[in-house]
Amino acid sequence: MSTSPAGTACATQPLTQAERSAISDRAMIDAAIDLILERGTDKTTLAAIGEKAGYSRGLATYRFGSKAGLFDAVCKSISRRWLEYLKQGVGEKTGVEAMCAALDAFLKFVTDAPRDARVLQILYCGAASPLSEYRTTSVNIHSKQQEDVARWVRDGIANGTIRRDVDPKAIAAQYIAYIGGMNYLWVINPDSIDFRRANEDMKRQLRVALAADTGSSST
Amino acid sequence: MSTSPAGTACATQPLTQAERSAISDRAMIDAAIDLILERGTDKTTLAAIGEKAGYSRGLATYRFGSKAGLFDAVCKSISRRWLEYLKQGVGEKTGVEAMCAALDAFLKFVTDAPRDARVLQILYCGAASPLSEYRTTSVNIHSKQQEDVARWVRDGIANGTIRRDVDPKAIAAQYIAYIGGMNYLWVINPDSIDFRRANEDMKRQLRVALAADTGSSST
DNA sequence: TGCTACTTGCTTGTCGTCAACAAGTAAGAT
DNA sequence: ATCTTACTTGTTGACGACAAGCAAGTAGCA
Questions:
Q1: In strand D, which positions have an atom below 7 A from any protein CB?
Q2: Please, are residues A169 and A146 in contact by the beta-carbon 8 Å criterion?
Q3: Which of B124, B180, B185 sits opposite A142 (nearest CB)?
């Protein structure tokens, strides 16, 4: 259709090979996000991705090797953006405050970039299938997130803001499960989820459930 | 291979048509569960399901109409078994006790029937894709579960065991999200999840976070 | 600067597989 | 004997994957 596939003005200045492939990669990942949102992963074809990005039907396969390879790239691309939100929101906080800030960051991410949030969840879901070629990507991301949360909890215990008798790893798994589960429920039925309200409740519950004993009770 | 497809002894006594189709349905759903566990939904073919069940490559399509139709049937079949565990475990309990009993029932289900639990999660994940033909099945199941939990919370508030200032629907969504999220983490990386420990922690947190004020504090 | 050899980005042709459907056969019902 | 239902086999179109080829960019050399 247009003279330059990705819509950039490059008539005067020729591009280097690296620039060309960076542009087409970006265009195909964007096209994939659109198509996954529209049709889901199953009904999104590599040919449609290549053509929507302004290239041929064969480029997506050629560049990413396989459908799973492309989805893996999309997964990593969106994850990178999400991690920026997370870093931005949490900063140097630890303990319960870090956990609450991460919840707020997640809410902000879902609000600012609902398309990314939806696609990320859809792709994580695809990783649940055995032999999924980007399963390890999902496992790594979730493991890393659990480690981060566990560290916040340990730090909270160390500085006396979190009770000593909780298991950081267990808390981390629960916390990550909660976020992923809410995102899933939101994806399949957006109207049924009030993220803002749920987050406020969750933050209060975290403060109550993890607060170090201030004088009273047991074991 | 064998003379009777599903392995039943029927040489002497002819079967009714209803029995025949019930047997083949059952056999194909079982075969589908095996194959989904082995290869995931994408790489499970309708032909393989029919043949593993002891029939022809075409029967699965003929009976269930489409791959999504078959998965929908598998989803409903396993859900039915899970709901029996749930009913069994919860009985007439309400409030926090019902929520804790449901967690125990879930643990028991995952322990007794890990294959069912894995496949159910894999199928729920498939329902996250737009245009997924069994998405409504997942939405309905999750909605119903949320309603059940919300009712337990309302009953708990009514009989004074749960604090008045919580939103039953929000609590229900969080609770269902937690269970689904844990199941997901377990499916993608079983070693990282200690369900027993997590459930004990969760029960304690539910009791702490939802307990009606007994004299002290805020608002 | 122009010419040539090489590399990399991208396209088109092709094959095997699979879901879906249609037409046919066999088994139970009336 | 006829009809209905369970099941099988033939076929088609779509898609993922690959391979061969074309085109655009890069580097060496005069």
A1: 5-10, 14-20, 24-26
A2: yes
A3: B185
Say which amino acid occupies B10: C
Given a cut of 80, is residue B14 above it in pLDDT?
no
Give the separation between CA A93 and CA A96, rounded to whole angstroms: 9
Q: What is the pLDDT of residues A110-142, one digit of tens each?
A: 999 999 999 999 999 999 999 999 999 999 999
Residue-by-residue DSSP string for A136-193: HHHHHHHHHHHHHHHHHHHHHHHTTSB-TTS-HHHHHHHHHHHHHHHHHHHHH-GGG-
Query: Closest residue by Cα to the C1' atom of nucleotide C13?
Result: A58
At residue A60, does pLDDT exceed 70?
yes
pLDDT at B208: 87
Structure confidence at residue B9 as a pLDDT band (50, 70, 90): very low
Provide the β-strand partners of residue A162: A211
List of residues 6+ apart from A136 with CB closer than 8 A:
none
Residue A159 to residue A154: CA distance in whole angstroms: 9
Q: Say if B122 is an interface residue toward chain A (CB within 8 Å).
A: yes
Are B49 and B57 a contacting pair, CB within 8 Å? Answer: no
With a CB cutoff of 8 Å and minimum separation 6, the contacts of A165 are: A219
What is the per-residue pLDDT for B209?
A: 87
CA of A14 to C1' of D30 (A): 25
Asked whether A23 and A10 are in contact (CB, 8 A), the reply is no
Q: Give, as one character, the DSSP assignment of residue B119.
A: H
**High-pLDDT (> 70) share of chain A, %:** 91
* A188 closest CB neighbour out of B41, B142, B197: B142
Contacts with A121 from chain B: Cβ below 8 Å: 128
Whether residue A6 is predicted with pLDDT greater than 50 in this model: the reply is: no
The closest alpha carbon to B33, from A79, A42, A80, A130, belongs to: A130
Task: Out of A124, A167, A185, name the one closest to residue B173 (CB).
Answer: A185
Residue B214, pLDDT score? 63
* CA atom of A49 to C1′ atom of D25, Å: 25
A215 has pLDDT over 80: no
| Distance C5 C1' – A15 CA (angstroms) | 21
pTM of the predicted model as reported, rounded to 2 decimal places: 0.92
Q: Are B195 and A167 in contact (CB under 8 A)?
A: no
In the structure encoding, which two tokens stand for residue A27, read together?
């265009």
Q: Which residue is nearest nucleotide C17, judged by alpha carbon to C1' distance?
A: B45
- A208: confidence class by pLDDT, cuts 50, 70, 90: confident
Q: Could you tell me the two tokens for B30?
A: 């079982």
